[in-house]
Amino acid sequence: MSRKHFLGTILFLLTAWVVQAQETERQYLSGTGLGNTVTWQFRVSEGHNSGRWSKIEVPSQWELQGFGEYTYGRWYKKAGVKNPSMEEGTYKRSFRVPRNWQGQNVRLWFGGVMTDTEVFVNGQSAGPVHQGGFYRFSYDVTDLLKFGSNNQIEVRVKKHSDNKSINAAERKADWWLFGGIYRPVWLEAKPATHIERLAVDARVDGELKVEVHLQGTTGEESLSMEVAPISAKDAEHRPVKVTKDSVQLLTAHFDGISPWTPESPVLYRLTVSLLGKEGNVIHSMDTRIGFRTIDFRPRDGLYLNGTKLVMKGINRHTFHPDGGRTTNKELSIQDVKLIKEMNMNAVRSHYPPDEHFLDACDSLGLLYIDELAGWQDAYDTPTGTRLVREMLTRDVNHPCIVLWSNGNEGGWNTAIDSLFRTYDPQKRHVIHPWADFDELDTHHYPAYLTGVARFTNGYKVFMPAEFMHGQYDQGHGAGLEDFWARYTAHPLFAGGFMWAYSDEAVRRSDRGGALDSEDYNAPDGILGPYREKEGSYYSVREVWSPIYVEPLMITPSFRGEFRVSNRFLFTNLDKCSMRWRVLHCASPLQGETVGSPVSVADGGAQAWRQVVDSGMVQLPSLVPGETGFARITAPKLFEGDILELEAYGVDGESICTRTFPIHYAKDYLQGELEANAHSSASQTSVTGNCRVEETDTLITLHSPAVTVSFRKSDATITSVIRNADSRVIPLKDGPVAVGMKMILSNLSARTENGDAVLCARYRGAADSIVWRLTPAGLLSMDAVLLNRASGGGGFDDAFTDTEVLNLGLTFSYPESECSGMRWMGRGPYRVWKNRIPGANYGIWQKDYNNTITGESTDRLVYPEFKGYHANFYWATLQSPTVPFTVYAASDGIFLRVFTPEEPHGRQDGINTMPDFPAGDISFLLDIPGIRCFKPISQHGPQSQPGIIRIKKGDEGLRLNLMFDFR
Asked: Which of 53, 200, 356, 549 is the most buried (most CB within 10 A)?
């Protein structure tokens, strides 16, 4: 080797050593999360695969790896169960430490271990047992390591803590109790003189204060810092002389910064460098920051950058069926994106989440309430003191965090409230969720009329930390429209947080991989365990859309102008965009459905549509809170059937889609019949007229295509036969009245202009039903309901307001004959009276399924097939043998298709859904709302039963249908 080459090599090595000395180095002893693990040796004391050395993946929860026993936190409420599973696990592995780490400070870090953790390195204790399962902790192992050679680590973990307050706060809780090293394990090497950590206060006016915590300094060092956009090269340098104190304060002011908000999450890179006497960099540390100011103003509100916040939030646990609380960065990003897709802007949890979730909230834009664990019981003061420090020293610099939370529902220790301010230079407000504490009322699950002195006529800032409980299919979107309109009308409302984000069903290693949500305890999500979207997902997305289109009716007078409101907090509407489309939806009367199928996210449904015309909406310039007029120019509007408006945010991502019918049901059907009559695809002319046949018990209407028989006793259908192949279409035993009395008083039949006509007259709430069968085989039903005061024949008292849950007519049809449904109306998800937003007009297709919402099963298919469907225009009940189609000639009819099965694990066998009507296929003018934690009586007006009052002279309601059995 030449001398020049030798000197170059030495220079390179010295340069590499200097760079290495400047930066913190990390070496993982485990994987980084779910899907990225490292194998350790493992032995568990009790339960499955206990008493022998085996292998385990780290990080993980040991139950999901086949060890120990599963326990849900409500074990203490179960009869005969005194304690949860209490196994202990021992982990071992060998590892090498780089030789060039010698002389540096090396710490061993654990991202999270459940629950008591004792660590040995090369047979020597690394330090005191760590207690608390949701917190990052570390040990200085510099003097225990063998540099450049093999080392041994042993970790002893007790699932159940020796500290009673730990168990009270973390284990007697409404969640799965897991054991093990579930977050990453790593070594960090820093120079002996180094920066330990940073605590930042970066304010919206550009003021920056940085607490720099140092170790090993002599007083001859200095500090400098740089602030730059993530991708920028330029930076500010402001050296400050270091004193012998271990904490130094750096201050600076930066002009022209862009503030951080959840709608524009601008981040900067802060780098703090520790400089030697000669100006050389000894050590540097960087962190991402956002310039923003959060302040709580009593009897006023919570402000971000001077703007009053209204948080549209969800409670989220760190959870995945395949990993328990072991997740990964990709899952965190996915969850943040799904939350933002619902137009939410805030998240809360019952314990500190993975740090990569907070990173995703910072970069994608979500507000966060960071909570010290304590589910209805608190840590003792020494334990709480330590855990507050661990939580805040990890999380303090995240701009997404706007509030700290000390426990939940009584799980707070007031003696440690002041510690949050000790470790947080921003002095963010501390809450006690469900309590009225320190001028912020976080009352859980308020009723619609919550008061007195609490909200209705109270004077505290109001922010329910939990509301709209979503067990099974209840809650979330059900009733939200009412609650939100009432709450946001109050100037002291600061937002609310739904319970909860996803169903927490774990894939049980001891049950062949079966999913288990512990019956009714854990299926509370707006998403399924694998993030399957339930109906409320789309309902919340519409109700909480920051671009709100006010209710709109398309009539011949419509000239393209409609009202739109800006419900953003920080964004002018002119920074956003909206596209309009005119869609044509052909019915089965015109043969094959016109248009192309469009997949509906991962919902298992498809929409068929043909775009007639499209363009961009002219959005007005509106600041947050303003309402104005938007405009479209759509010359082909009335050539289509649906107007679709899709709004997009500043980032170009879709915010919400709203649809509006262009034609009323009767006009749409008439147009389809006329198009069919003139279409080359129409049926060939039918020869022959209809006839009527009568026996002692039946009246039968005959056409060349279809034969329909009615019972004389009650005018219900007994059989429908398709004449071409003599197949029986098993729609029968109707119409039967739902929600009213309907007693047959007269029945007559005749032929008229080639049609066969059956007229049934009733006493009670129904006046008459006229059936008409055409020679082509189309059977129409014209029902006149609620058109007179019946003197008690239809309801208990026709002049007294009468509550009705379901109102309409129902038929029988066997589920076994149905393979799917294609329909035009609002979809693809089923609805409840108080959860219609989010269901859009279109032509939808979904195959039959028997999904039980929230029930832990591998058969979860969304949208659910069974239930109520809003504003149907037509629907084809698909069958391998006898499909048929029914059309609506009346507006606002709900189509009920079968009865959803109740969850088998529901609490005490109490039904989660209101009663469905008798029969299988129903056509209804009113349907019930579904409860959301509170009884229906404590919900808003849209959740209440319908009120019927009949007076003499009322025109009544028409329920007109047309059946095509051909």
From this structure: 200
